[in-house]
Amino acid sequence: xxxxxxxxxxxxxxxxxxxxxxxxxxxxxxxxxxxxxxxxxxxxxxxxxxxxxxxxxxxxxxxxxxxxxxxxxxxxxxxxxxxxxxxxxxxxxxxxxxxxxxxxxxxxxxxxxxxxxxxxxxxxxxxxxxxxxxxxxxxxxxxxxxxxxxxxxxxxxxxxxxxxxxxxxxxxxxxxxxxxxxxxxxxxxxxxxxxxxxxxxxxxxxxxxxxxxxxxxxxxxxxxxxxxxxxxxxxxxxxxxxxxxxxxxxxxxxxxxxxxxxxxxxxxxxxxxxxxxxxxxxxxxxxxxxxxxxxxxxxxxxxxxxxxxxxxxxxxxxxxxxxxxxxxxxxxxxxxxxxxxxxxxxxxxxxxxxxxxxxxxxxxxxxxxxxxxxxxxxxxxxxxxxxxxxxxxxxxxxxxxxxxxxxxxx
Length: 410
Hints:
With about 400 residues, the protein is mainly β. The chain has helices spanning about 5-15, 25-40, 325-335, 355, and strands spanning about 5, 45-50, 55, 60-65, 70, 80, 85-95, 100-110, 115-120, 120-130, 145-150, 150-155, 160, 165-170, 175-180, 180-185, 190-195, 195-200, 205, 210-215, 225-230, 235, 255-260, 265-270, 275, 280-285, 305-310, 310-315, 340-345, 360, 370.
């Protein structure tokens, strides 16, 4: 393994911490130029070490070489700031590479996405923070950590803060592990979209609009996402006003949503602690609920085989978002009542019935439930959980050779 140090840059690092965040000095420009050259010339086995310090860049970085590690001194020590960015759609782009690791650094205030990986295999993102430091704003980049069309993705011990779409998003990918992360002050904290075989566990997800979302959307090259396990997470107080740009699908997510399944199949949600999400602690919805046309004949808009079991639900449902949900709360539960912990829109395909959807809910303590009958405009609204007192086979853990074979770098 060849280790490439940015030692020649360490000397000019001194004194840069006091700059205005949008100012790009000659030292920053030199750092960017030399770092990008290292990424272009990287050889298999290279470890590109970034020294402690804060750098402000005005254009993105990119890597398309395999078997490379980019390693900083820690997310509070090595900070790549893009506050002055005028060129590039993201901070760091990893494109069509295999066996790439990004660890121990921070990416701040990108114009677009923070760290995007496109078409990669065996990608590890570890102890990386992506943040928009000005707080929630629709002008923030859409995605913090953003692998798309990838295979074997590990994101661990990382943080995403302030994304105007999703903080940690994995889309159109397969074999995914997201663990021990923190997602805060995003529209969606964590989102799995049109993907298969995902494990999402031991994450803390708080102060987002919606906590953890498992979506299938129409019109994408990779369809039919399924087999996602979401477990042992702490999902609480996701009550930040929705600041997604209008027209984005996540702009339809109600403020105060803990966990949400949209049109996805074979989802297992268990052993989570879900607290104080003011619309609902858990939502199960068809794509019809978005009010948008699917325009995709191959798309199935109805969730099936969703198993919610052995979770702890506390509080929530006391101040729902959106006029329809507010009116429903008052009409069904009174001014001082709460919406149930688990809400299902009750929409099924014409050739199915409630039993065929296999929405199973069991072992969640005192948690309550409602089928709101969205299609029937609440005509058959029901809080009867008995039709959903069923059990589904446990989904298999996500694993691949080498997933846990090496101790994480510190």
